[in-house]
Amino acid sequence: MDTEFIIKYIPLYVKAAGLTIGLGIVGIFFSLLIGLSVSLIQYFKIPVLKRIAGIYIELSRNTPLLVQLFFLYFGLPKAGIRFSSQACAIIGLSFLGGSYMAEAFRSGLNAIDKVQEESALSIGLKHGQVMRYVILPQALSLSVPGLCANMIFLIKETSVFSVLALADLMYVAKDLIGLYYKTDEALLMLVIAYLVLLLPISVAASFLERRLRYAGFGN
Amino acid sequence: MKEKEKLLEIKHLHKDYGNGPVLKDVSLNVHKGEVVVIIGPSGCGKSTLLRCINGLEQIQSGKILLDGEVITENKTKWSEVRQKIGMVFQSYDLFPHMTVTDNILLGPTKVQGRDKKEAEAEAERILERIGLLDKKNAFPRQLSGGQKQRVAIVRALIMKPEIMLFDEVTAALDPEMVREVLDVMLELAKSGSTMMIVTHEMQFARAVADRIVFLDGGEILETDTPEKFFTRPKTDRAKRFLNTFSFHMERERGGKAI
Amino acid sequence: MQDLGIRVLFMGNNFIRLLKGLGVALKISLTAVILSVVLGILLGMVMTLKNPVTKCITKIYLESMRIMPQLVLLFLVYFGLTKSFGINLSGEISAVIVFTLWGTAEMGDLVRGALISIPGHQYESGAAIGLTKLQIYRYIIIPQTLQRLTPLAINLTTRMIKTTSLIVLIGVVEVLKVAQQIIEANRYTVPDSALWIYGTIFFLYFIVCWPISTMAGWLEKKWKN
């Protein structure tokens, strides 16, 4: 193990991790947005949009992110639609993540008993108010474990961004292996970098999940 | 009784879920201050009747009037009508993410736009009367089933409804908690509230009702005072139904082997 | 754009080559799935043991497989093993090893979940009508476990197929690699072929995965009650 080498290239990894996290956060943000919209469209069974949402979910869930990215980054420019690497990364991650987030929101919404809606209506709340004060707060907190799991999943998925010529963690590791044959060092730093990124989220998620499962509201 | 004004009128109500009628030509008037108890076998349409009154079910024909105004039309502003109709359900329907007080105040503050302080003071007054003031900051999961149902009653009451609908509110409770909920309802009846109650508690029905309505197969078969209905039911079906609640003759009949 | 790039698909045996490339990926996924299911069932049973040592070891194994991106695992095996231990593994073998390790962890957790989800009174009521321990498993526990498990295991298959697309990044000649070769070869004659080729691959994956995940959803719904 060449410690000097490791220390020398730590900044490179930090920079790459920053890129991963940055793209991940933006992608997750849009995923949540898409997911919530899609789940509400399906919950309210809005005609036409409901069909589109259904097709989107099937397309998104049944194709690999890597293939989606190849199409976006290498395919679409030939049809005159050109996005930067960063834009492709964010579009791809959001396209993939949206359907996963929708599923998490959907299971939260479906877990709310019908009688909650009815009793809210029966004290005179309007449908919008029922959603805002009664259904959504409960559904969202039930969705949290699923949403957290999806966030971890999406950050892991960013590992393919190197194909977009983005200098993310995988890209840096592969570069160091290719240039200096420092395979052990490069891989060790790679693993540590992902652990540093993902462990805190994973621990926080399982803490949240346990709290929600065993305590519920009122503790 | 007769000179009292009609508060709720149900006229030739017909309800169908798509696989046969659930309510067939149901007509019923409820007067101000009257307590009507609806009884009948499971699946006879009792709950559906209450749900129709509160607009939770679409009806196929007939109409329902509240204060002389038809409420079963497409343009019905249910949010307004429902403020006049309080309803308590069988399953604990408190909002689990809100404290007892927040549950009770949701209607007054968000629907009626009442002052929060003033509504809270009233909520505390009612909670005190039913002995739950110390639970005002508790969450529903910290309450017993009986306590939850009493809070649910308060939540409906604070809207100052003209009529209260109770849909088997004790059916999901442990036996020892039934009484505390029924006591609250008895209290309400005594204070002159107009109520429609669906229940399987026959003794309670007899004690609280001004009038018993016997519903079977989606039809009203009998309407009578509790005294007459429980001692001398007119129809065979009512007799058979009441028999399922009594055991004192079973032994003498020499219990058939199953 | 008059001369549509889609024709590149039908030039020579291009389409067949793409399908063969997809076949390479599918073969790797199926091998890994079969191995994962067998090993995962064993792992899942071990995970339900109350022994603290096995509990700890299996937990560490599961979590470390889960927290690392699969691509990192691929790099570790493909580059790491080769370098550190001088074992020269082909991309295909590395992929099967990695996806089996990962799939076994996922499958093991599914099996554990299905096993502990059978309520205790199922065992008790089986015993109450006089069934032997073996009969209880044969007629009560295993059928219920299988019903819960099958849709989840099928879902794992689609995840595996999607994940296998990563093998192009360790140099395995699969569908994306074939696509790059075709596009490169036709760079001057059909400049916009990338759009059509990658679009085709997108739908090829969809056509493979969609029926499988639809079947999993259908089974799940059917067996829910």
Provide a compact summary of the structure.
With 258 residues, chain B is an alpha/beta fold. Chain B has one domain (6-243): Rossmann fold, CATH 3.40.50. Chain B is 35% helix and 23% strand.
Question: Which helices and strands, and how do they pair?
Answer:
The complex is a heterotrimer of chains A (219), B (258) and C (225).
Chain A: H1 3-43, H2 49-61, H3 65-75, H4 85-110, H5 114-122, H6 127-157, H7 169-180, H8 183-214
Helix pairs in contact in A: 1-4, 1-6, 1-7, 1-8, 2-4, 3-4, 4-6, 5-6, 6-8, 7-8
Chain B: E1 6-16, E2 21-31, E3 35-39, H1 46-53, E4 61-66, E5 69-70, H2 78-84, E6 85-88, H3 100-111, H4 116-129, H5 145-157, E7 163-167, H6 175-190, E8 195-198, H7 202-208, E9 211-216, E10 219-224, H8 226-231, H9 236-243
Parallel strand pairs in B: 3-8, 3-9, 6-7, 7-8
Antiparallel strand pairs in B: 1-2, 1-4, 4-5, 9-10
Helix pairs in contact in B: 3-4, 3-5, 5-6
Chain C: H1 14-47, H2 52-67, H3 70-85, H4 91-116, H5 120-128, H6 133-164, H7 175-185, H8 193-222
Helix pairs in contact in C: 1-4, 1-6, 1-7, 2-4, 3-4, 4-6, 5-6, 6-8, 7-8
Q: Care to describe what's here?
A:
The complex is a heterotrimer of chains A (219), B (258) and C (225). Chain A has 219 residues and is mostly helical. Chain A contains eight helices and no strands. Chain A has a single domain (3-213), classed as MetI-like (MetI-like fold, Orthogonal Bundle). Helix content of chain A is 80%, strand content 0%. With 258 residues, chain B is an alpha/beta fold. Chain B has one domain (6-243): P-loop containing nucleotide triphosphate hydrolases (Rossmann fold, 3-Layer(aba) Sandwich). Helix content of chain B is 35%, strand content 23%. In chain B, α6 links the parallel β7 (163-167) and β8. Chain B starts with 5 loop residues before the first strand and ends in a 15-residue tail after the last helix. The mean pLDDT of chain B is 88. Chain C is mainly α. Chains in contact: A-B, A-C. Chain A binds chain C through residues 58-59, 61-68, 70-71, 74-79, 152, 156-160, 162-163, 170, 173-174, 177, 181, 183-184, 187, 190-191, 194-195, 198-199, 202, and chain C through 5, 63, 67-72, 75-76, 79-80, 82-84, 158, 161-163, 165-166, 168-169, 176, 179, 183, 191-199, 201-202, 205-206, 209-210, 213.
